């Protein structure tokens, strides 16, 4: 069984943080990538069974939420 993959796009980039949103209609996952604290903050879980991935140039994020 293959896992559904959703692409996350950076929609807002500030010096210390970047906001990523899922591009798949109806999912709604939103996360903040904290560049200073090196952590990911989940704002909206979206479809938890999908593998979410995205990047901004040389930085790539990929994570699962339990």
Please give the structural blueprint.
Elements: E1 5-13, E2 17-22, E3 30-34, E4 39-44, E5 51-56, E6 59-63
Parallel strand pairs: 1-5
Antiparallel strand pairs: 1-2, 2-3, 3-4, 5-6
What do you see in this structure?
This protein is mostly beta strands and 66 residues long. The protein has a domain at 5-49. It has strands at 5-13, 17-22, 30-34, 39-44, 51-56, 59-63. The chain has a six-stranded mixed β-sheet, with no helix packed on it. Strand 2 and strand 3 form a beta hairpin. The protein is globular, with a radius of gyration of 11 Å. The chain starts with a strand and ends with a strand. 14% of the residues are buried.
Distance separating the two termini:
19 Å
Order of strands, main sheet, comes to: 4-3-2-1-5-6
N-to-C order of helices and strands: EEEEEE
Oligomer: single chain
Overall pLDDT, averaged? 87
The gross shape turns out to be: globular
* Helix-and-strand structural type: mainly beta
Overall helicity:
under 10%
Work out the strand percent: over 45%
Poorly predicted segments: none
What is the tally of helical segments? 0
Number of strands: 6
Q: Largest sheet, if any?
A: 6 strands, mixed
- Radius of gyration based on Cα positions: 11 Å
């Amino acid at each position: 069984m293959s896992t559904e993959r959703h692409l996350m796009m950076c929609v807002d980039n500030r010096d210390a943080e970047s906001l990523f949103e899922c591009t798949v209609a109806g999912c709604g996952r939103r996360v903040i990538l904290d560049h200073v604290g090196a952590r990911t903050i989940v704002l909206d879980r979206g479809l938890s069974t999908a593998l979410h991935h995205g990047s901004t140039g040389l930085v790539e994020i990929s994570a699962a939420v339990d």
